[in-house]
Write a structure and sequence with these properties.
By secondary structure, the protein is an alpha/beta fold. Helices cover about 50% and strands about 15% of the residues. It has two domains: about 1-115, Resolvase, N-terminal catalytic domain (Rossmann fold, 3-Layer(aba) Sandwich), CATH 3.40.50.1390; about 145-185. The chain has six helices and five strands. The protein has a five-stranded mixed β-sheet, covered by helices on one side. α2 links the parallel β3 (about 55) and β4. α2 (about 65-80) runs antiparallel to α3, α4 packs across α6 (about 175-185) and α5 (about 160-170) crosses α6.
Amino acid sequence: MIFNYIRVSTILQNTERQLPSVDCDRVYEDKLSGKDTQRPQFQLMMSNLREGDVVNVHSLDRIGRNTKDILDIVEQIKDLNCVIHFHKENLIFDGTKSDLYSNLLLSILSSFSEFERNIMLERQREGIEIAKLKGKYKGRKSKLTKEQLEEMKNDFDDGMSKTKISEKYDVTRSYVYQLVKKQNQVTV
């Protein structure tokens, strides 16, 4: 079978430029960040791969945004005796041969992909910092009321488990720590 994997980072972006004229049996499309591999359609595609299948991807940065993930994914696909074809870079990998030049290009280009993401995040942090200094950026508003935040702090101080607190308020454990830390700074 021939699979096309398409990914954009947000639901607002469209996928029309990716593999527009590449025929396939099935398309897997994610509208999530490529920062990790925990994307539903990507995971589904990987679980459906069988020996001899082909995976078409528009470019390296569509399957991952860090070198390790990209190299691991290509290796997993090759280990299944499947083929992965990166159309923009014109790189093809299969499990039957080892192409030293393609492997070198894969390593270099995946490193550039990771570098590009890090530069983007750095610029975003700089922009947020400038906006904060100008008073234009306040961050995301908490979905919890002041009363809920105070109650959460009390639960935290009373020794309630962080997991139970996160379930009670429908937030992540790390968010519990962040909010309690922020509450403590405000009350000091």
